[in-house]
Amino acid sequence: MPQPKVSIAKIDRPIDPAAIRRAVQDAVELAGGLQVRGKRVVIKPNVFCPRPSPTTTDPRVVAALVTLAKEAGAARVTVAEGRSISTAKFRKQHNSTRACFEAVGMTAAVMEAGADEIVYLEEDEFVQTDVPNAAVLKRATVPRTILEAEYLINAPVLKNHSLTLVTLGIKNLHGIISDSDKLFGHNYRQLPQKLADILHVRRPDITVIDGVTGQEGDHADEGRPVDLGIIIAGFDTVAVDAVTSAVMGLDPMEVDTTRAAVQSGLGVGDLSKIDVVGASIESVGRVFKRPDIEISEERFPGIRVIAGDYCRSCEYYIRRGIDKLVEQELLNPDDPITLVYGKDPPAPENVEGRTIILGDCAMSSESIKRLRDNLFLDGRLRVVFTCPPMEFRMIAPRLVLD
Fold first, then answer.
1. How far apart are CA 80 and CA 120, in angstroms?
2. What residues pair up with 211 in beta bridges, in sequence order?
3. Which of 284, 314, 341 is the last residue of a domain?
4. At what angle do helices 191-201 and 256-263 cross, to 10 degrees?
5. How far apart (Å, rounded) are the C-alpha atoms in residues 267 and 148?
6. Quick one: 163 and 243 in the same domain?
7. pTM for this prediction
8. Separation of alpha carbons 36 and 38, rounded Å
9. Each residue's pLDDT tens digit, 161-196
10. Tens digit of each residue's pLDDT (9 = 90 or more) over 75-109
11. Run of H or E including 62
12. What's the domain count of the chain?
């Protein structure tokens, strides 16, 4: 089998839409070009509302892809995306994909570029489909627009993610499944494999990474922009993620989603078996700052931690909730808030002050029953359910102030 090809194109003037378009065209052509004549093309960006680029795919990159597809003879070009669960549940002003597209300027950009339509995937008709060879997501509910796409262009942005270390081509496909499927298996132990399983549902025909500006540290509000000025493209999504991870200073096999996809036979992750064309990894790379999700009483005076065995997803959502408490100056070392989480936390029968039990592992543990009952009797029981406790990230200040 020939080695997969991944291209890297530099943008000579990243503030110039024409320069971005040239780089997108160069990257696509170096990778092998768009084979879209007479086909129904769907472009799937990453729109994280209400944050613009680099949290969201740069609209100029998506517009360039629309134009290139039309010029290559596509019969119809659709831009399609589905907002995250957090957006749907907790971002009241922009809780739909339609609102997110407007907020970040995506609607105007792609329609002006000649897109035939925009499909907001939560509004689409969904089809249930079995997922052969999947390890976690064995049955998926998928928008008809995605299933019927004759050519799928995957257009994520280059950034870190606190749960999966990076969010690139594989992670971007999370937006093509239903809300219930997004929530299913959304924990650190299952999420990487579940995301790899989506490649069994619909493998992109080409993945084009927006590296106009990257984002290090995290994928959301906590991330920091990184000026890169590159576009990365290839037909093998796993190989594209591997090369892009290396650009970010990471060992590709350190990335759980890439490793899971490789182990499932869904692509190539070994850099020695990938043909990198255009610019070299070394000439454009830099070491990205990694996600910071440390939780400790020393780091955050005003927090008391009672933790059992927990995974990275619990750590992430709890830490981001703590960040909001810090931001709103709601931590007081003289009146600490006790956070109880993980499996079998070593909890006493009672604690003083405000206490929140976080996640299904803690709530199902025998070790907290006395504490839980006493908090309930005192009228102080506060619980965030589900695995992981996603709600705490969004409403921690409300829980503390209630």
1. 6
2. 230
3. 284
4. 50
5. 23
6. yes
7. 0.92
8. 6
9. 998 999 999 999 999 999 999 989 888 889 999 999
10. 999 999 999 877 877 777 778 999 999 999 999 99
11. helix 59-71
12. 2
